[in-house]
Amino acid sequence: MPTLEYDSIASLMGAAKAAGQRLSALVLAQQAAQLEQSEEQVYERMRRQYAVMAGAADAGAQPGVRSASGLSGGDAFRMLGAQRSGAILCGGLFTSAITKALAISEWNAAMGRIVAAPTAGSCGILPAALLAVQEARGLPERDCVMALFTAAAVGMVIANRACIAGAEGGCQAECGSAAAMAAAALVEVCGGDPEMLDAAVSIALANQLGLVCDPVAGLVEIPCIHRNAAGVAGALTAAQLALAGVHNRIPADETILAMKRVGDAMPAALKETAEGGLAATPTARRLYEQVFGRQKTP
User: Fold this and answer.
1) Where are the alpha helices (DSSP H) in the chain?
2) What angle in degrees, to the nearest 10, is found between the helix axes of 141-161 and 39-60?
3) Looking at the whole model, is its pTM more than 0.70?
4) Rounded Cα distance, 97 and 126, in Å
5) Under a CB-based contact definition with an 8 Å cutoff, are residues 197 and 21 in contact?
6) Which long-range contacts (CB under 8 A, 24 or more apart) does 14-20 make?
């Protein structure tokens, strides 16, 4: 079994090509060896994580879901109503994905149980992508669970080479990383090859490059929840382009390093401090006072 170092997307793709296997199979085998467990035991742990993701998507779309702050809740239910009435602009898979992304993110804001993927603020993107595609295509659960191992490998590379925290790299590091992980997972479940996976990661991350982290009132609700919907839309776009043979001119590893440089150059006001961007607007300041009962100091 080839050794996976998680230091570059190129090395992961090279290992998968050399072994003639999906990346997920290599990751699962390595994790089982490191944990001194059987592959089926490690798989079962991931399957339980996928079940939590599915449960969050269902729970967050129910009527009456609200966050403690009162700033969010109900958008997934509204989208579900639009789906059922046919009041949708895009196809069923796309609408289902953004609905699930909203639901999981709103469930997180309501203090429900979620899986950070890779963070709580971006928790809706990866599961929404896989759950929507599984539903639309009737995919076996095992294929989707295995794709989570591929997504995790991509997330490890991003974390090792750049970052996944909004406080360090802005929302590009959270929703951008999640979109890249989701795009990789989608390429795998749709039968794409390693080159397509690299392209999907690069395209997804490039399209989120420079996204700031500016939570209104310092809470992971506005604009975070809607960015999860946009993130899964970006993941679907990146995966579809890659599966069609479209390649980004910039390799995934260089895109990851570019994200790090952009994050390093961002002012602190745009990295989870709630001092810039949307968090600094007059309406955001009123919402801060509404939630906390005092005016935020400029």
Assistant:
1) 9-19, 23-35, 39-60, 75-85, 92-109, 125-137, 141-161, 166-169, 171, 177-189, 194-206, 224-243, 252-265, 282-292
2) 90
3) yes
4) 10
5) no
6) 14/194, 16/194, 17/194
Per-residue pLDDT in tens (0 to 9) along the chain, 298 residues? 678 999 999 999 999 999 999 999 999 999 999 999 999 999 999 999 999 999 999 999 999 999 999 999 999 999 999 999 999 899 899 999 999 999 999 999 999 999 999 999 999 999 999 999 999 999 999 999 999 999 999 999 999 999 999 999 999 999 999 999 999 999 999 999 999 999 999 999 999 999 999 999 999 999 999 999 999 999 999 999 999 999 999 999 999 999 999 999 999 999 999 999 999 999 999 999 999 997 655 5
Nearest residue to 84 via CA among 99, 66, 64: 99
Tokens matching residue 66: 């609200």
> Helices 92-109 & 39-60, crossing angle to 10 degrees?
90
CA distance 90 to 106: 22
Taking each helix axis from N to C terminus, what angle separates 9-19 and 194-206, rounded to the nearest 10 degrees? 160
Among 278, 281, 288, 176, CA closest to 232: 176
What are the C-alpha distances in Å from 2 to residues 14, 24, 78, 253?
10, 13, 47, 20
Quick one: which of 79, 28, 43, 74 has its CA closest to 232?
Answer: 79
Here the tokens at position 58 are: 């269902």
CA 286 – CA 267 distance, rounded (Å): 24
Locus of tokens 């992304």:
101
User: What are the Cα distances from residue 174, in Å, to 64, 72, 118?
Assistant: 27, 19, 7
What is the DSSP code (8-state) at residue 21? S
